[in-house]
């Protein structure tokens, strides 16, 4: 083979090798990118799992929302995280939570006008001032980009989880929308569970309140009737000068009985009931009070346990 031909072969071989090296480097870069993304996804999933486990342990809706806001912000390095709920959008009123800056009550029509369809995730930037102002209020000026995740409670959109960043490129070419959907579903589910728990607890509270009210009326009315009757009798005797010590003792006994009933109410530590008229039950204040040592402890339920 002549030198010229050898040079051609060597040049061709060199080009092929360079091309292979270049392609190998591209493949390596793509593999590194995939590995990094896989690691990021794993970390996101790990964070989501840990957040989910902690959300379940929160005692009520307010605690859940405050915890979720703080935890999501710190775990995902966000500038600000809050919740927006439609006014009257939840079965339980949250007007009492207005003072908490992470909870924002908004007008439903305005939200739907700005975010339609309202059941999809939205990415917004600093230029969309009306949207940022609606969701982030005073913090809107500091938000450079944000994600709005709808929250579905009992099959209806009740509001949104708002993730605000001070980095304008935070969500540029964002590929983790599936994780955002998972986060939205988890939060929606936890909020709905807490609502159900609160409703059941409120029903129990109402039941106990009615039973206590019935017991108060029943127990106090008896000595009160005696007291009123005797006073009326004394008034009639007063005209004839026929008041006796026995009459006064009856009044005193009735008053002491009312005093004793009041004392029993202030010393209730457990929950015991007894049958009443019309197949109803009322609280047995004598059995429920610590002053009554005759009550079988097996029939008692600790008040604090009842309301936990």
* CATH topology heading of the largest domain: Beta-Lactamase
Structural class: alpha+beta
Rounded to an integer, what's the Rg over CA atoms? Answer: 36 Å
Count of extended strands: 7
CATH H-level homologous superfamily name of the largest domain: GAF domain
The order of strands across the largest sheet is 2-1-5-4-3
Global morphology: rod-shaped
The CATH class of the largest domain: Alpha Beta
Q: Tell me the strand percentage band.
A: 5-15%
CATH architect. name of the largest domain: 2-Layer Sandwich
Distance between the ends: 94 Å
| Unreliable stretches covering 5 or more consecutive residues | 293-308
Number of domains: 2
Subunit arrangement of the protein: single chain
Number of helices: 8
Average pLDDT over all residues: 76
The level of helicity is 55-70%
Report on the biggest sheet.
Answer: 5 strands, mixed
SSE topology string: HHEEHEHEEHHEEHH
């Amino acid at each position: 083979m002549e030198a010229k031909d050898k040079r051609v072969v060597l040049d061709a071989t060199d080009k092929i090798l360079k091309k292979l090296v270049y392609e190998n480097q591209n493949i390596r870069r793509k593999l590194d990118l995939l590995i990094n993304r896989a690691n990021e996804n794993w970390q996101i999933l790990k964070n989501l799992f840990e957040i989910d486990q902690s959300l379940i342990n929160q005692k009520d809706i307010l605690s859940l929302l405050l915890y979720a806001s703080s935890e999501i912000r710190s775990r995902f390095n966000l500038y600000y995280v809050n919740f927006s709920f439609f006014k009257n959008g939840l079965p339980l009123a949250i007007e009492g939570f207005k003072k908490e800056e992470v909870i924002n009550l908004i007008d439903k029509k305005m939200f739907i006008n700005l975010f339609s369809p309202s059941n999809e995730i939205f990415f917004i930037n600093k230029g969309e001032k009306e949207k940022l102002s609606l969701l982030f209020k005073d913090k809107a000026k500091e938000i450079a980009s944000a994600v709005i995740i709808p929250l579905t409670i009992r099959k209806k959109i009740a509001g949104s989880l708002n993730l605000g960043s001070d980095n304008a490129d935070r969500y540029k070419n964002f590929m983790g929308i599936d994780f955002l959907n998972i986060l939205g579903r988890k939060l929606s589910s936890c909020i709905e569970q807490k609502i159900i728990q609160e409703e059941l607890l409120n029903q129990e509270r109402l039941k106990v309140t009615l039973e206590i009210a019935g017991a108060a009326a029943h127990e106090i009315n008896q000595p009160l009737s005696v007291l009123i009757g005797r006073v009326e009798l004394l008034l009639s005797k007063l005209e004839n000068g026929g008041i006796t010590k026995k009459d006064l003792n009856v009044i005193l006994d009735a008053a002491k009985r009312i005093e004793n009933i009041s004392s029993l109410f202030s010393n209730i530590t457990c929950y015991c009931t007894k049958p009443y008229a019309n197949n109803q039950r009322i609280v047995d204040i004598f059995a429920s009070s610590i002053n009554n040592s005759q009550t079988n402890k097996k029939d008692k339920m600790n008040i604090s346990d009842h309301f936990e």
